[in-house]
Amino acid sequence: MSRGRGVGRSIGRGQAETSRRDATSRFGPAIESDPHCAAPLSMAIYYFDASAVVKYYVPEPGSLWTRQLLDVQDPVSTRPLHVILVAEVTRVEVAAGLASIERVGRIRRAARLREYQRFTNHLIHRYAIIPITTADFVAAADLTQRHPLKAYDALQLAVALHYGQILSGHPFTFVSGDGTLLAAAQEEGLVTENPFDHAIPDEMPGRSR
Fold first, then answer.
1. Could you tell me what percentage of the chain is helix, strand and coil, using 3-state DSSP and rounding each to the nearest 5?
2. Does 5 map to a domain?
3. What is the CATH number of the domain that holds 107?
4. What is the three-class DSSP state of 73?
5. Residue 183 lies in a domain
6. What is the pLDDT of residues 7-59, one digit of tens each?
7. pTM
8. Is the residue at 8 inside a domain?
9. What residues make up the domain containing 25?
10. Tally of domains within the chain
11. Helices then strands (H, E): number in the chain?
12. Residue pLDDT, tens place only, 126-163
């Protein structure tokens, strides 16, 4: 786990309180008593970008760690132990990623269809989806002036920074498999995780299965 320098861009007290209330009303269940996630505030909150989400559905280095993080359950309630936040744009990024992975021959059509269906099911029942606002686009544009980020990556980071501030005081980790994006997130003050850092030998390219 890598730690940043404390989330950088602050928001006003009134705006922060409004955002907290908005977050609670929007997916408060994901933060307090979500029928999907049901993780209390003491549980860890993870923000996954698309590169991290894809690892759940396609075998890659770090996939086992990613699946364990999403699938681990509270031993008493049997509900998911961690809150997993994803931006609305992740829906499109992961869908496009699965299609691209099929086109290059890494998975077959049947696997792509199966995993896409699983992903859409998780969007309903597992992930807490964050809508993207105009303010997020403005923040993302600003991020491109400070870091060498692609447009979607800047947008992912902008949303994560926004909700990292809203949920300050709670364990909040930004998860991505993109080194450039992780470096930017760390510079902006986020605690980060890279699934590649948790890869096991059997997941590495060239290993016989």
1. 55, 10, 35
2. no
3. 3.40.50.1010
4. strand
5. yes
6. 433 333 344 444 444 444 444 444 443 334 333 445 799 999 999 999 999 99
7. 0.81
8. no
9. 13-197
10. 1
11. 8, 5
12. 999 999 999 999 999 999 999 999 999 999 999 999 99
